[in-house]
């Protein structure tokens, strides 16, 4: 099967950073770096030198393995590449910028879910890629509008770009089932659409890193070429460190290298080099069996706490006899929940109860605890009954 990126040329290495890489790789003790003011310290843990343009190698490899799985065929065949980016936002931007320059179907539209994270539209439109929406949230069932989603994929021009959330959809908390992912993959494959995943919550949705990566791994197994933006802000709590990665799954190792070279060129012009500290923290954990196991346990604990809060809200609304159906509170997944509250009802929640949520009725489940859960449910009960 031909690659959509087979005509992407390989960009030349940046001269300065290629020189630095060659110096670091040289094992001769007498080596001397005259490229710039080089300060060497004996304690390598105090190294504040630039990372390579594509980032910390151990971080990148571990990130690809985390999302694609240790037994990934794409990794084994050398078709999976990566670039360390400025968290998830930077990963989405870098992938979008590459597509704006090298996607062979000029003028191709990027389709984003309705609703989605607000920055998705801004990023793609900011690099000159037109944006349209595909149906996702069904306000009647308060679940996935699969029929509308598939219809848009079938109607979109061949080779369109589809941006999707692998797990813990933001803001609805509604995720496709494995069978629905199969139908989505069939629709995308039939029209030759390009898949761009944005995963900000791996491990934080179900509590299982593998389960939350199901859709990405399924698409990879089916042979899709795709980009996957990864963020470590939530699942590592590294919000301010901006640790992220763009994983690339290409048709061949050669095409992967060409894509990486062009992404390096993009990064050089925008950030030069990604920051080291957050990437080193993530790399240390992902590459240490004991720390990795402890991290998995912590993620499971956090995810289960959110699941418990969902159950508590649902049970309290049921006890109060709040009008309407509230099953969606427990069927949704991840940090966010689309409550179904209207904008006027949200206004009352803010002004009368001092409970702050977005105008579209989205709440962060992480903000609920055993101390405020009943208060929140009581407020919802009031606004649903009286407003």
UniProtKB/TrEMBL annotation:
Annotated Pfam families: Aminotran_1_2
SUPFAM superfamilies membership: PLP-dependent transferases (SSF53383)
Top-rank EC class of the record's enzyme: transferase
Cellular-component GO terms for this entry: cytosol
Gene3D superfamilies linked: Aspartate Aminotransferase, domain 1, Type I PLP-dependent aspartate aminotransferase-like (Major domain)
All copies of domain Aminotransferase class I/classII large, residue ranges: 23-379
One annotated GO biological process: aspartate biosynthetic process
Keywords of the record: Aminotransferase, Pyridoxal phosphate, Transferase
Molecular-function GO term, any one: pyridoxal phosphate binding
Co-factor requirement: pyridoxal 5'-phosphate
Family: Belongs to the class-I pyridoxal-phosphate-dependent aminotransferase family.
NCBIfam families: PRK09257.1
PANTHER family referenced in this protein's UniProt entry, alphabetically: ASPARTATE AMINOTRANSFERASE, GLUTAMATE OXALOACETATE TRANSAMINASE 1, ISOFORM B
Subunit-structure text: Homodimer.
Designated name of the protein: aspartate transaminase
Organism the protein comes from: Lunasporangiospora selenospora
């Amino acid at each position: 099967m031909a690659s959509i990126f087979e005509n992407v040329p390989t960009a030349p290495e940046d001269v300065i950073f290629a020189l630095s890489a060659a110096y670091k790789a040289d094992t001769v003790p007498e080596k001397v770096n005259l490229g710039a003011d080089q300060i060497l310290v004996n304690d390598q843990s105090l190294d504040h030198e630039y990372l390579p343009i594509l980032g910390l190698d151990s971080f990148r490899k571990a990130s690809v393995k985390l999302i694609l799985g240790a037994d990934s065929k794409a990794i084994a065949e050398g078709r999976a590449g990566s670039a360390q980016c400025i968290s998830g936002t930077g990963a989405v931007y870098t992938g979008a910028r590459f597509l704006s320059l090298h996607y062979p179907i000029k003028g191709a539209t990027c389709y984003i879910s309705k609703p989605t994270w607000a920055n998705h539209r801004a990023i793609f439109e900011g690099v000159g890629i037109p944006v349209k929406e595909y149906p996702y949230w069904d306000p009647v069932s308060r679940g996935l509008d699969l029929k509308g989603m598939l219809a848009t994929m079938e109607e979109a021009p061949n080779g369109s770009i589809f941006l999707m959330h692998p797990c813990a959809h933001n803001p609805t908390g509604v995720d496709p089932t494995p069978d629905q992912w199969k139908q989505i993959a069939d629709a995308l494959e039939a029209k030759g659409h390009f898949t761009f995943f944005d995963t900000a919550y791996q491990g934080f949705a179900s509590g299982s890193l593998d389960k939350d990566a199901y859709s990405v791994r399924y698409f990879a197994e089916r042979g899709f070429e795709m980009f996957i933006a990864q963020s470590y802000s939530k699942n590592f709590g590294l919000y301010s460190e901006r640790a992220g990665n763009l994983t690339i799954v290409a048709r061949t190792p050669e095409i992967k290298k060409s894509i990486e070279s062009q992404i390096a060129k993009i990064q050089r012009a925008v950030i030069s080099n990604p920051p080291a500290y957050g990437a080193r923290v993530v790399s240390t954990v992902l590459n240490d069996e004991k720390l990795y196991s402890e991290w998995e346990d912590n993620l499971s604990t956090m995810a289960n706490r959110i699941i418990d809060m969902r159950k508590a809200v649902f049970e309290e609304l049921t006890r109060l006899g709040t009008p309407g159906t509230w099953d969606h509170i427990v069927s949704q997944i991840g940090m966010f929940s689309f409550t179904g509250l209207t904008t006027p009802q949200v206004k009352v929640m803010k002004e009368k109860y001092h409970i702050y949520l977005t105008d579209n009725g989205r709440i962060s489940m992480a903000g609920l605890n055993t101390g405020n859960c009943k208060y929140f449910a009581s407020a919802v009960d009031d606004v649903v009954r009286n407003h």
